[in-house]
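Recall that a protein's primary structure is simply its ordered list of amino acids. Everything else, from secondary elements to tertiary packing, is in principle encoded there. The following example makes that idea concrete.
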Amino acid sequence: MEGNLARQIKSICVFCGSNPGKNAKFVEAVNNLGKVLAKRKIHLVYRGGSLGLMGCVSTAAHVGGSHVLGIIPTALAEGNFIGKTVGEELQVPTMQDRILKMLENSDAFIALPGGIGTLEEIFQIASWAQLNIHLKPIGMLNVDGFFNKLLSFLDQAGEENFIPHSARQIFISASTTEEMIDKLEDFVYKPDPITAQIDWSRESSSKKRKMDLSLHL
């Protein structure tokens, strides 16, 4: 950041399991995260619903006074598969629309223990950062070493030249909530010089120019 100033984070999107898991420390961690978000006046964005760790973090943040936004595909909302959303609910047509709205409404991202959905979300957001679609910080709250093997895998993939250093540094890890948020605020992403040249606004700008031209004909 310019002048080495910490970024101001007003909203964090949290990815975590729709089950509580076997380790009681997971529930303790997400409850604490929700309370810390409220204490630091940070809004919460999440998948919606009230099950598992998602329900715990959203309830803790909501009770503490944070604004909570649950983004959920209509098919899941109407089927009542994941319980009643805590706070405000935004329904979207598809899973892809959900991740786009999460990106749009969040300043940073934190993953906690979870399954395939959690991994899909955090890696999609990370791949978009690698491609310079966004520069928002991404963290893994490594509760009781849950992400140790995954972080080791990322290191191995880097050693095998599948993940460049610029992409590996996208993933921030910490074992406590306060440390994690502090790291997210201090993070400065240095994109790969090649991907930094990608201009994702070009297509929309081109469409706008064509529209402007047609309006003047």
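The chain is about 45% helix and 15% strand. Residues 205 and 211 are 10 Å apart (CA to CA).
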